[in-house]
Amino acid sequence: MIAPVHFDAEVYSTLRRLHLQRRLDRRRFELAVDRLERFDAERLEIVSLLSNVVGLVDVFGAHDVFYVLLAMSRDCPLVTCDLSLGRAAARLGVSVVAVDRSRPA
Questions:
Q1: What's the pLDDT tens digit per position in 54-74?
Q2: Is 78 helix (H, G, I), strand (E, B) or coil?
Q3: Beta 78-80 vs 96-98: how paired, if at all?
Q4: Alpha-carbon distance 105 to 101, whole Å?
């Protein structure tokens, strides 16, 4: 597994929001943060990808573009639960693995 360096901040932000909305209790929040810390994925710098972002400015969001560019540069599938991101990436020839977020992990 690979992810852009900002992956942890994005996941933490989502977990924090769910906790503050009381959709994730304190125990589950702490467990999720612990799992994030132990998630075995290589976190990759994104500076080398900046030269490719301008051409995709109207296609992907500021954070999402780096997930797509990493998948393209490593010729690996993009794993996402964001269906619109997956469709846009697939149009560029990226293999996409869609994760159904309505199912419990």
A1: 999 999 999 999 999 999 999
A2: strand
A3: parallel
A4: 8
Contact of 6 with 66, CB cutoff 8 Å: yes
Residue 66 lies in a domain: yes
Reported as a single tens digit per residue, the pLDDT across 4-34 is 999 999 999 999 999 999 999 999 999 999 9
* Contacting residues for 63 by C-beta, under 8 A, at least 6 apart: 4, 6, 10
Tell me the β-bridge partners of 43.
Answer: 3
* Domain-embedded: residue 35: yes
Domain membership of residue 26 (yes or no) is yes
CA separation for the pair 87, 44 (Å, rounded): 24
Number of domains in the chain: 1
